[in-house]
Specification:
The protein has 456 residues and is an alpha/beta fold. The chain is built from eleven helices and 23 strands. The longest helix is centred in the middle third of the chain and has 18 residues. Bound molecules: thymidine-5'-diphosphate and magnesium ion.
Length: 456
């Protein structure tokens, strides 16, 4: 009889241990270890490298790389341009794509509408909703498609039986946490079930060359529930994020074996499903007629696209002893660094001020070229002087207050011009290499020059 052995797994990071631990040594989370049964095989294997005299050629023998043909990957193009771009140009055949996001953010809606709109045959397997609920959702999206098959199931072998009948071009599974395999004893959603079922889906995808889109819920602190292990297994990880109370949703590539991992797509949740936002700059900049202090516009690069983004700052005298610093969408440590630079190099007394920073539309910026925009918004709020409404800011700020060059300036400038901006503050050294059509370039060497230019 197979010896059964139990192992404790951390639900947060997937680390394992032979005994229960209260505080995970790997991810430092408390009370995340759960016990799971692992079947141990008793079959004794002869090590494969021992020469047994059987050297017949096999299919999986190594080949010289020069003898292989590459050719571009074959992809399924969906009708959703944002999704195609985030995936690097469509869904690669035979790939396993994981879409993570908080409950209620719109993962099922996104996948179902993709399934409904495409001309390929899709099997949408849901373990979360009944067929009736899915139909209601499809009605809400308002599209009918005879090539979109719905299955409400959770057992993996059951799903594969149906897959064999339907032979879809694309398989969607909603969600990995509801799947279970009878060969494993633990409950659905446990690490070993998730790992086993994903492993089977991966094998199916590779062997049948059918792409699989797998939905996964994430926990409050942003991890794909349970396992980091999942991220290693799949080809692509997309994160669907945004505030449930805001209309905008952002689809971001976190890992992509077939494209850039810095790509993102923006959607708007409407009454009839998710609508692609193809001109994000226009929606991310609010009404510019009314001049308010603490608002600046920066041209960021997100993935391959330039984006004009509104950044807002509020600087006010701290009531309590320790001033508060808070940031939505911009790295808090970077904000603290900017404040220290503004205080030390420009003499702005921000040490006793509360500072709040917010990026419009719930976006998260990680392009250092947006530093100058944030700094301008902070200075504007501190001085209580509105910035000129058709001025944009691009540049990274260094520790001595110097403005540094940013990459892909041509694209940023072209985007600013498209939206009717009149001037843009940039790194002084870049000015001679840039040929703008209509916008005025203002070269600045450091943050002091920016303050001087704006407030005289
Ligand atoms: P859902 O797609 O079920 O999210 P998830 O699968 O990530 O848990 O949830 C979508 C939310 O969006 C839900 O609260 C209802 C809302 N919604 C709309 O506003 N418009 C629509 O057309 C649809 C289908 C859903
Ligand atoms: Mg769902």
């Amino acid at each position: 009889m197979a010896k059964s052995k139990t192992v404790f797994f951390c639900q947060n990071c997937g680390a394992s241990s032979s005994k229960w631990i209260g505080n995970c040594p790997s991810c430092k989370q408390w009370n995340t270890y759960v016990e799971e049964v692992v079947e141990k095989s008793t079959v004794q294997h002869v090590p494969a490298w021992v020469d047994t005299g059987n050297n017949k050629p096999q299919k999986a023998d190594p080949k010289p790389i020069s003898s292989l043909n590459s050719g571009p990957e074959q992809r399924i193009k969906t009708t959703d341009e944002e999704l195609n771009r985030v995936l690097g140009g469509g869904i690669v055949l035979g790939s396993l794509v994981l879409i993570g996001g908080e409950p209620g953010i719109g993962k099922s809606t996104l996948m179902l509408q993709t399934a409904l709109k495409t001309k390929y045959k899709v099997l949408y397997v849901s373990g979360e909703e009944s067929e009736n609920q899915l139909k209601m959702r499809a009605d809400r999206i308002g599209i009918d498609n005879d090539e979109c098959f719905i299955l409400s199931a959770t057992e993996i072998q059951e799903i594969f039986k149906q897959v064999k009948k339907v032979k879809p071009h694309l398989l969607v599974v909603d969600s990995v946490q509801t799947l279970f395999s009878k060969s494993i004893e633990s409950t659905p959603g446990s690490i070993s079930q998730i790992r086993e079922c994903t492993g089977q889906l991966l094998r199916y995808a590779k062997e049948s060359n059918t792409p699989v889109m797998l939905i996964g819920h994430i926990t409050k602190d942003g991890q794909i529930a349970g396992p980091k292990v999942l991220e290693h297994m799949v080809d692509t990880v997309l994160q669907f994020e945004g505030d449930r109370h805001h209309v905008y949703r952002i689809l971001r590539a976190v890992k992509n074996r077939f494209g850039s991992a810095s790509e993102m797509g923006i959607y708007e949740m409407a009454g009839q499903g998710l609508r692609e936002v193809s001109n994000p700059s226009e929606v991310l900049i609010s009404n510019r007629e009314q001049l308010l202090s603490g608002i600046s516009i920066t041209a960021a690069i997100e993935g391959v696209r330039p984006l004009m983004i509104e950044t807002q700052a509020l600087v006010s005298t701290a009531v309590y002893g320790t001033p508060q610093r808070n940031s939505n969408g911009y790295d808090l440590r970077r904000l603290n660094m900017l404040l220290a630079v503004l205080e030390k190099r420009c003499g702005f007394k921000l040490g006793a001020q509360d500072v709040f920073v917010n990026i419009a539309g719930g976006l998260k910026l990680d392009d250092p070229g947006t530093d100058l925009g944030i700094a301008a918004a902070i200075l504007s709020s501190y001085e209580n002087i509105p910035l000129p409404s058709f001025t944009a800011f691009v540049g990274e700020i260094g520790l001595s207050g110097e403005v540094r060059a940013s990459r892909r300036m041509d694209q940023r400038i072209a985007e600013a011009e498209k939206l009717g901006f009149e001037e843009i503050l940039v790194h002084a050294g870049s000015v001679k290499n840039l040929r703008p059509d209509s916008i005025k370039l203002v070269g600045v060497r450091n943050i002091m020059e920016v303050a001087e230019y704006l407030f005289g």
